[in-house]
Amino acid sequence: MSEAIGARLPGFDRATGWVNSSPLVEADLRGKVVLVDFWTFTCINWLRTLGYVRAWAAKYADQGLVVIGVHTPEFPFERDIDNVRLAVKDMNVEYPVPLDSDYAIWHAFANRYWPAVYIAEAEGRIRHHQFGEGGYEQCERVVQSLLREAGRGDVADDLVSVAGDGLEAQADWTNLETPETYLGYEQALNFVDGPFDRLRLNQWALSGDWTTEAGASVLNGPDGRIGVRFHARDVHLVLRSRAGRVPFQVLLDGEPPGEAHGLDVDEEGRGKLAEPRLYQLIRQRGPIADRLLEVRFSAPGVEAYAFTFG
After folding, report:
1. N or C: which terminal CB in the chain sees fewer CB atoms within 10 Å?
2. 295 close to 281: Cβ distance less than 8 angstroms
3. What are the CA-CA distances from residue 275 to residues 84, 121, 246, 305 (Å)?
């Protein structure tokens, strides 16, 4: 059993700011069932859980559930409150969000995961947690049980129904053979210094004038390219620009993606890097096989952080 189970719910007084709410203190949560969701806005694993957390917040708010979304950043630009505010708006996150830019709340929970859910009873002790995706039915059953323990007699047995689409669609786990791939030297694996057409499955390479920094690969000149050979339905890339909007093009096995294009590109593979976030490049509609993805950037200043797949 995790040490978190049975522990008192840590407070949120060391948050560096709040979105959607004034700071919540112990008195605000007394007698409430509290669900704490650790997230960061570029995390595809969290995005695939968001529909459930959003639905629970709406369904059980009037029955005594408080959902708190602790935003603990993975990448430097996720510490910027304006970027978090934009993400909260775009993703329809309406529950309170304490900003955990210094990882104080993360450490208070001894947390190590995005996403992670902790559920506390009305007396303030943690009774359940879920690390990573999944466990949705069990989490909701725990919420229902703890609300009844707190004296709510009107809690129904039905479960939320979530039909995630876009970035919130569940991964195609049976065809997912490529892991998250970081593009900074601190966490990079499977980098190959060679032509794209020689890449093996899960290997990646750069072409052009790039500098590989600790957390990202940074394009110094025009005509930079990133290639990766992958096996998955979806491909996403976390990007930021140092120099305004940067057009890019995605090719799949050397051709425009057509119907396999993701949310952030068209059938010709054209997209534009604007705000710092996770971009969906590919969502395949047909059979899944090993494919070669190439992303071409037309201007310098691009920061490429990580590929994720689904």
Report:
1. N
2. yes
3. 11, 39, 10, 14
Closest C-alpha to 302, from 227, 234, 247, 254: 247
**Distance from C-alpha of 177 to C-alpha of 200, rounded to nearest angstrom:** 13
The whole-model pTM stands at: 0.95
Residues spanned by CATH 3.40.30.10 within the chain?
A: 17-168
Q: Which fold has domain 17-168?
A: Glutaredoxin (3.40.30)
Q: pLDDT tens across 182-225, in order?
A: 999 999 999 999 999 999 999 999 999 999 999 999 999 999 99
User: What is d(CA 15, CA 78) in angstroms, rounded to the nearest whole number?
Assistant: 15
Residues in the chain: 310
Q: What are 156's two structure tokens?
A: 């129904």
Tell how far CA 72 is from the center of its chain. 11
Q: Which of 251, 255, 211 is nearest to 235 (CA)?
A: 251
| Phi and psi based region of residue 110 (left: phi greater than 0; alpha: psi -120 to 50; beta: remaining) | left
